[in-house]
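A student in our group prepared the protein record below, which I am reviewing. This is what I was given:
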Amino acid sequence: MFNQKMANQQKSEILLAVVILARSTSFVLSKSAMNSLSPFNLLAVRFLTAFAFLLILFWKKLLHIRLQELKYGFLLGVLFTVMMGCELTGLRATDSGTTSFIENSAMIFVPILQFVLFQKKLKGADAARIALAVSGIAFLTLGASGGLLRSGCVYLLGSAVFYASAILLTNIASRKGDPLMIGITQVFTIGFLSLLMSIILEQPRLPQSGSEWGMVLGLAIICSGFGFTLQPVAQRGTTAERAGMMCALSPLSASLQGIIILHDQMSFSKLAGCIMILLSLLVPALIQSLHKPLAHRPVYTHS
């Protein structure tokens, strides 16, 4: 029973890791796309395009969607719309390194919100892992970014708080219905609300050039259609704390992409950051293996 539960949690966390890695590509694509598209305009086209693909793939299942799944999908869509509106507004004013650092500080706000809302205290080991992960992200991102006192950082801090709130709500929602249906409803809600905000605040338009459509399709299919839709599915088998901790994978991935694709140098600070983040993610597995019941450990006898 113990081994089966551990195996299911590991599968969920592997899927969640892939989801976060897929979404980590959005910073560079969004930064480029916003050279010609306004933030909510970009979100509207991106998420409504993603929903169109999902509708083609899952229209039969969507015919049987339940009211509870619509409710949770809508609430998550509202949180993510505000979160991504703050993210893109901040991203226009600062660099992707600072954006990645502040947004993924959501891992700090997850246990804080759990304590405020549910009186769930943070364990010492969890606090140490969070400190290790945040330090790692800082080593990766802040060295060349100019630090936190930059224009747009207030929006990014708001993005981190709403991201943490979305992680907590996803943890609840994924156990109340079909997480795939909740994820698809969430994607449509983000697209629809972003379109309304774009009509009110901007002058929305469709992408014009092939490069614009290429960036939008990349964001729609990889980051939204796959990343956002499957987060409730992935989170169903793990905890909100672990999901929050895995936010550290996003800046780690972004830094490695820069080294591999853009040929950035692997500095000492980047290497130290990568090691810290990996340790923060591996420590829980090591602790769990040490506390595994004796019945599940091999018994060695002398021949």
User: Anything to note?
Assistant: The two ends are 31 Å apart (CA to CA). The chain has a mean pLDDT of 79. DSSP finds 13 helices and no strands in the chain.
